[in-house]
Amino acid sequence: MEFVGWLGSLCFAVCALPQVIQTIRQKHADGFSHGLFWLWLFGEIFTIIYVWFDRYSLPLIVNYVFNLALLSIIGYYKYLHGKTTKTNL
């Protein structure tokens, strides 16, 4: 049964990968909605806390940590990349 858990976690973990690849290639995440980003982020954080303290399951923790890593890449391109202004000295 643990194999099924790992398989499901792997599928969920990599489902964001196409979005991350597209975001990196385009160098922006303008089409990625703010609502989805923030709900996904807080959902991942709260679920990691729940899984860690209540139902410790390594496959789920790997999934959520990997998703947070992918989400941080999307967040970088959505909120930080190219947003700084250059000043003339």
What percent of residues are in strands? under 5%
Instruction: Tell me how many strands there are.
Output: 0
Could you give a short account of the major beta sheet? none
- The best one-word shape is elongated
Measured distance between first and last alpha carbons: 63 Å
**Tally of alpha and pi helices:** 4
Order of helices and strands: HHHH
- Give the rounded overall mean pLDDT: 86
Which structural class should the secondary elements be placed in? mainly alpha
Q: Uncertain segments of ≥5 residues (pLDDT<50)?
A: none
**Helical residue percent band:** over 70%
Radius of gyration: 16 Å
Brief characterization of the structure:
With 89 residues, the protein is mainly α. The protein has 4 helices and no strands. 11% of the residues are buried.
